[in-house]
């Protein structure tokens, strides 16, 4: 069986719920190119992926793919558009829900409108088994509060001193602001896995000692000109250059993610995620 066929069969038999993963880069905010490539690799394996893009349109995933989001979650909240109309369909099976405007106003909705939105999220016109969260940086995000926090958080760092320092600073901020104690680390733009593991070991030791935080090595993405070429083509590297070294790395990352445990079947759909997101932002709305 091809990997995507085997994955499709596994999902038919698997009653697990939605997997929610937040991806952020140490330089502040997440890296749209990484999310695009990871989503493409997951979709290639047969996963049903939806990207939640909290960044302004010009800085987010839609822009990275050369697409334009005409609407976002705010239009659904104001009942101007249906949820399926707002979702942007990109290449290689990538789906994106823009929510830069809508995410911040969720907790301010009347209870009846909150319930209507939750029910609409339970009636998507397509299946979703994986959410990739492209959250706004730091405390500006409405998607990282504890009750709605992603099951897994991937922090991207790089091979130079500035990227390593920024990656550690991001972990420290998320640990302090959102009480996160476990992170996956992806080391990008390095020459070899050995170099990536050395960077990770140093970061993990420091985080364990000073932050009481546990880091897990997720993998690495090598320096590869094909990544930039694929970005110019507005495609994930697995679709543009299937035999590239970076494509192989993203396939390995996707394979690792599909092996991570997901939430139980009860109370773990997209509608349940939206309900938790609304509830988790109520304290901040009250404080504001």
Low-pLDDT ranges: 7-15
Termini separation:
54 Å
CATH superfamily: P-loop containing nucleotide triphosphate hydrolases
Major β-sheet strand ordering? 3-4-2-5-1-6-7-8
Which secondary-structure class do the elements indicate?
alpha/beta
CATH class: Alpha Beta
Domains, number: 1
Structure, described:
With 288 residues, this protein is α/β, with parallel strands linked by helices. The protein has a single domain, classed as Rossmann fold, CATH 3.40.50. It has helices at 3-13, 32-44, 61-64, 73-77, 83-86, 111-121, 161-178, 193-211, 225-232, 237-240, 245-258, 270-280, 282-287, and strands spanning 19-25, 49-53, 88-89, 95-98, 130-134, 152-157, 182-190, 214-222. Helix 8 links the parallel strand 7 and strand 8 (214-222). The protein is globular.
